[in-house]
Structures are given as structure tokens and as C-alpha cells.
Amino acid sequence: MDPNAGRYSQDKDSIPLRLPTEDELRDPEPTVEALSRGGNKPYNIYGVNYSPRTDILQYEEQGTASWYGSKFHGHLTSNGEVYNVFSMTAAHKTLPLPSYVRVTNLDNYRTAIVRVNDRGPFHDNRIIDLSYSAAYKLGIFPGGTGRVKLELISSPAMASQESFATPIAKLPDIPYQPVTPSERPSRSSNEFVERPYVPATSAPATVPARSSTTAASNAPARPAASSQLASTSSADGCFIQLIASSDKAKVQRLGNELQQQLSVPTAIENANGLFRLLAGPLQGNAQHVLDTVRSGEYPQAYFTNKSLCG
Q: What is the average pLDDT score of the chain?
């Protein structure tokens, strides 16, 4: 039985009649929101059971992205919001509603941040269904699908935690290039995803967004190490993330204490308004340092890049 039967006025999805504006292509600012009351319960679609991961702190995935257009515009998403083809949103099968992910097009390395507020796609092993604006910004719009990487930035499970482990890759800043009308695809049914509707039980609840501030390096005990870390990205060597907090002064204090206790270099990075305390770069003693901090005050510490830490 088709769960969409009789729900939409269009039989096939269609392309919006205009292109997104510059304002509609702006990334939403990630914030830790409360878990929506609807759309996060286990569900069954086409005989397949899905269990949303509402306690998730870290998530990465690679696969095929698609997008959905005018057929679904103005209809309710799975958490009770109204779908807008021009908002930077997306649908995912199991990520918490709402949550924020960074999407990277692996063919052109354009990136976009989207707010996940819907369920899907349930078609052809695709991992995410993007809004029209998100697909346009990533360069996925002309072909209908594209190879992408997803990275979780914010989830409701982080709302009750002062610190959380969310590696944020620093990718090259490649601006989007507008798609001319001549590049629009023909209206083929293969370009769109028919997504079953997972009904909401009530309206979503949200919490205010965090304010963004500029990150600063902490004052290390050894000036030579500090100079190197100030211009070093956590993607350039073996680093351990210890905490992330909006309290910069606290992160600086903990960094100074850790540097004195373990004699390891530390650094602070700003990630979407949160200050990340990092230990590194580390050499052959990386695993020993990780075991030490996990057994003490940082049980959730982790390697930001395992391949560089052996």
C-alpha cells in the first residue's frame, strides 16, 4: 500500500519555477535543539523497520544524495514542520529530528549545511534527500543525484551535554556557481524520489540558538609549541578532542591545566560557536595519552583523525 496515496496533488515531482535567491542559499547556523516530539519513533516503510538514533553524538556517512521539489512544497514534514523547497533542509532515515549536518559533494567539493527535519529517502540506496536550494548550492540539481559525504554537526542528544565530540572537517571554500536555465534537467521520473510520509504526533520543540564568538588560542606553557599550534588545523596531524564548550575561559583554563599535568601541547579551535579543546599534535604516544585522559576527566575524548594517529 502506498503511504502517499491521495496525499499530494501532483503525481510526479516537478522543478520549482524559479531559482533560489542568494538569501535562500545561506547555510543555517547549527544549534543544539530539543528533540522534536514527532518523527523520532521507530517506524516501518515498505516492510522495512527504521529506528531513529536520538542519542547520537557522532555520525559520518557517504553515499548518494537526491532532492525533492514542488510536489512536496507546503506539505508537512515528518516532524510536523512545513516543507519549503527554498529552505536549506533535508530528509534522512534515522538521524534525529531536528539535527544539522554538513553535506559535501564529493565530485566538486562544494559544501552546505542543512537542517534535517524529514524522513527519507526510501529509494535506490540513497542516504539523504535535499531541498531544492541545498541541491542547487551543492551542484546536485542539474543531474538529480550526486555522491556526498555527511557529517553530523548538531543533534538533540547534545542539548544536555556541555561537551560533545563532533569532528568538523576543514574543506576548501569553493563557492557555488549559479545554474543557468539551460542546465535544468528534463522532468524525468528518475530525477526525483517518491518519499513515504512519516506522520508527526505534535509540533516540534526548540531551544534558542547559541551565540557565535571568535575562538582564541590558549596561553600554553611552552611558547615554541604555541606558535606552531596557532596555525595548525586538527586535520593536519594527530589530535585528541577533549571537550567542546561555549565557555572560552573554561576551555582555556582546562587546556593550561592539561598541558602542565601531561606535558602535551594543546590548542583551541572555534567550531560553530563552540570552543574545542585539542591535545596535539601527538607522535608515538598518542594512544597512551588518549587512554590517560579517558580514564580521568575526559571519558568522551577521541582522535579527530584516527588514520593520522596510527
A: 75
